[in-house]
Structure formats: structure tokens, C-alpha cells
Amino acid sequence: MSTIVASMMKMKSGNLVGIGNHNQRRFEKHSNPAIDVERSHLNYDLVNRDEPFNYKTDIEKFINENKSSSRAVRKDAVLVNEWIISSDKGFFENKDDKEIERFFTEAKDYFAEKYGEKNVRYAQVHLDESTPHMHLGIVPFDQDNKLSAKRLFNRKALIEIQDELPVRLNERGFELERGEKGSKRSHLSVDDYKAYMDNKKALEAELTDLKKVIETTEEELVKKKEEIKSLSEDKPVNLDMKKLKVHYEFEDVKVPSGEKFMGIDIKKTEQQRTGNLIIPQKSFDLIAKDAVQNVQLKQQVKKYMATDLVKENQKLEDELGRVKRINSENVKIYYDLEKKYKKVVAENDSLRSVVRSLKNEIKTIYRELKDTFKQIFVDKTKSKEVTKDFAMKIEQNAPKSEFKRLERDDNRTVSRGMSK
């Protein structure tokens, strides 16, 4: 019987752009060899079927509009718990598209009933990879609309899902069993080893796609920075006062002359600047126009700096760091598995050598025993019967007995000799 696959990943704000692009196949080219782009049009979303939507915008808006607390959501909070639902290839082989869709719909409905229909923000089904699977995104709101992935998907809840989901699907007509409970196996079969390597390659391909997104974003960011830098480095133009026909305004001011008449200070009249400028209308209009353009430019720069481009770039860098850490862990696991695999191969080689030695030993015993029977029994027919009976008795205790095989080979050789 096939086994249900239900694994969960935690998604923070910085992860949503990347996972949205991946799930909705927004890249024209994919480094992941498992993706067949000619089949990508067959993919669909059981929650948002009409058109692709922005994971980050939709989910953050949904959370802000529905959270019970007035406090801002923490920057490092888990906003989505993404479940990947699938099974092995054999489970899907004899099912048509309608039955496959029913399988994923039933799985989606299970989570919707358990965690709230509105909290399931996407249910993207991928049919363009080797095995059909679904990416199911759940906003971890509890009954009080408090955001807490740690509380909602604790160890007890995860065990319940692994127990309940296969039962639910079996009730709906799908033959599935739970994965091995509490498995502590440390040895991998060759098939498991190959499957791990395929998953490792898929992760590396997704990492490559993410790097390309970051490179593209960084290129756009560099261009914008250069534009701003060139504007900021331009030297301010000094006004040509003569050309603009601007001159200072003066006024008559009474000031002490230093002389006195009959003990009274005598004042004289001087012209002093008022602090104002006299400027022709045309010159004023020209300066005003330049000032307006300067304000507009500052507003554009301020608007650009407030856009998500810089923020998204930082989030993508954080996501790249996360994927690199995961990849580093997988590399360590890979080398551990490689050591175990080489050990298994060495043990197999050693066992083959032992088997060959045992076969030669059994063959020698068989020949010696057969010659002994020939010497004991003068009648060749009697000798053959005793040898055959002896081989049959050994076969009863040792199925696929090497001793019995040698006896049959001898009989075939004799039969072919007589037919000639």
C-alpha cells in the first residue's frame, strides 16, 4: 500500500516572494530538471483558480485585517505554514486527472475544516514534475485569531495530522497508510539513497533560481543607486545675478554723524540693504520653475526609497542565507550518507567474495560425495537416485539450495549428451 506524504515548512515574510514565484512558476526558465515547462499549464490552485496573485501582499493584508491584536506583527514571525501533500508514483499511476484533483481537494478540505477555510490562502497543485504534489499554505491563526505557528502546529498537532489524514483519505476511497511512526532507521537502501540525491539536486536547482532572482534585483538596485548618485554628485549651479538682473534693495536710514550741535547729536542719512532682492518677473519665473523641478525630484527619490525594491532585496538576501544554511546541512547529510553507502558497497563486495567461496566449497563437497556414492553403489542408477534424494533433503532445509542446483545441472548435461 502507498504511504501518505505530508511535510511542513515554516514561511516568514522574507520567504513569501520566493515561494510565490516558485509555486506559480513565474520564472520562464528553471534550473530544476524535474520541472517540465511544457506541462506547467496543467498546474492549478484549489483556492485561487482565476489568476496568479502576490503571496506576500495577500497574506500580509489578510493577517493585518483579521488579527485580534492591535500590535504590529513581529518581523521574524511565521506567517504561513506550508504543507507539501503527495504520495509515491505508484499511487498516481492509474488515476486520471479528475481523480487526482479529488485526492488533493479532500486533503485541502481536511486542513480547512481543522484550521479554518479562510486561513488556507493557497493550495497549488503541481502536475509538471515527476510526482504530483500540492503546496498548501495555512496562516496559523488560532481560535482567537492570534498568530502563533508554534502553538498551532506543536508536536502533538503534527502527530495528529499524520494519524488523521490517511484515515480521512481512506474513508474517501483512497488506499493510503501512515508513514512509519517513530522511525529511527539510520541505514538507507540504494533506492532511498538515489531518492535523496534527486531531492538534493532539486534543492540546489531551487537555490540557483533564487540566486538569479537576487542577481536581477541587485542589478536593478545598482542602476537606481547610480542614477541617484549622479544626481547627488552634480555640483549646484551658482546663480548669475547679472544675467538674471537681480540687485539688492536699499533704504534711507538715519545714523549718528559723530557731530553735535548745542549738545545734541546730529544724524545723517545713509542707504542700507533691506535684506530684500529686486528681481524681474521673468527671472523669478525661471528660478521658481527650477525650484519646483527640484522638489519633484526629491519627492521621486523619497518615493523610490520607500518602495519595496530595497526591502525585497534584503529579504531575498535573507532567504538566500536560509537556503544556503539548509543546503549546507544537506551537504553534511550527503557526505554522511555517502560514507554509509560506500560501507554498504564494500560489505556487498565482501559478501560476494564469501558467496563465491562457499559455492566453490559446496561444489567440491558435491563432487566428492557423488564420487563416493559411485564407489559405494556399483549400479549407476542407484547412485543417481541416492544423490538425488540427498540433494532433495538438503533443499527441504535450504530453499534454492546450491547443492540441488548442481545436481540438476549434472542431469541436464547427461540428458544433452544422450540426445546427441
Topology:
Elements: E1 2-3, E2 5-12, H1 13-23, E3 44-45, H2 55-66, E4 78-86, H3 89-93, H4 97-115, E5 120-126, E6 133-138, H5 149-152, H6 155-171, E7 176-177, H7 190-233, H8 241-244, E8 247-261, E9 264-278, H9 281-306, H10 308-376, H11 380-397, H12 402-419
Parallel strand pairs: 1-7
Antiparallel strand pairs: 2-4, 3-5, 4-6, 5-6, 8-9
How does this structure look, described?
- By secondary structure, the protein is α+β, with helices and mostly antiparallel strands.
- Among the domains are: 2-184, BirA Bifunctional Protein, domain 2, CATH 3.30.930.30; 345-419, no CATH class.
- Helix content is 59%, strand content 16%.
- It has helices at 13-23, 55-66, 89-93, 97-115, 149-152, 155-171, 190-233, 241-244, 281-306, 308-376, 380-397, 402-419, and strands at 2-3, 5-12, 44-45, 78-86, 120-126, 133-138, 176-177, 247-261, 264-278.
- The strands form 3 sheets. The protein has a 5-stranded antiparallel sheet, sandwiched between helices.
- Strand 5 and strand 6 (133-138) form a beta hairpin.
- Mean pLDDT is 78; it is low at 183-194.
Task: Describe this structure in a few short sentences.
The protein contains 12 helices and 9 strands.
Largest sheet: 5 strands, antiparallel
Order of helices and strands: EEHEHEHHEEHHEHHEEHHHH
Overall SS class? alpha+beta
State the shape. elongated
